[in-house]
Design a protein that fits this description.
With 166 residues, this protein is of the alpha+beta class. It contains six helices and four strands. Strand 3 and strand 4 form a beta hairpin. Helix 3 crosses helix 4 and helix 4 packs parallel to helix 6. The chain is elongated and about 80 Å long.
Length: 166
């Protein structure tokens, strides 16, 4: 009798493993398909130059400034960078902002982050063309939340007539 119970339990265990593998495979395929629809051709969205030059670009192109403060060893920072350069949400943000990236692991990056009152990475700082901080956020953020946050900040700047100042 013990032998038949053991055989039954082994069979039940095998069926459970097969069922879990099947369901996991279906979810993985669905997630992969969703990610493929969001992927776009990688694009360099970052503007090079000093803060002074970035403010000049902001006035010239009549776009506010978004600064990403990252660290080369930070997983969430790499994920944010990939999201901005490889997704439709990132491309939509790039159409509306002059985007600059600072590496907080460098001395100048740490000093700049400290001046802006930032304590963690990744961080996003939204500025007008004079360098006035309008909004900032710290910590990991997904594509949809970042897109929403960036659009809300643009509306806030427009409402305050504070987007770019000649």
């Amino acid at each position: 009798m013990t032998k038949s119970v053991n055989s039954f339990l082994k069979a039940k265990l095998m069926l459970s493993i097969i069922a879990i593998s099947f369901v996991t495979s279906i979810f993985a395929q669905a997630e992969n398909k969703a990610n493929q629809t969001l992927k776009v051709k990688a694009k360099n969205i970052y503007t090079s130059g000093s803060i002074s030059e970035i403010k000049d670009y902001s006035r010239q192109y009549k776009k506010p400034i978004m600064i990403l403060v990252t660290d080369s060893k930070c997983h969430s920072c790499k994920k944010l960078d990939s999201m901005l350069t490889h997704t439709a949400a990132g491309q939509a943000i790039a159409k509306n902002y002059i985007i600059k990236q600072f590496d907080a692991s460098t001395y100048s990056g740490m000093m700049t982050a400290g001046q802006w009152g930032l304590n963690s990475v990744p961080a996003v700082v939204y500025m007008n063309s004079r360098g006035k901080i309008i909004e900032k956020s710290e910590g990991a953020i997904d594509a949809e939340k970042l897109l929403d946050q960036s659009m809300i900040t643009i509306r806030k700047m427009k409402d305050q007539n504070n987007m770019y100042i000649e």
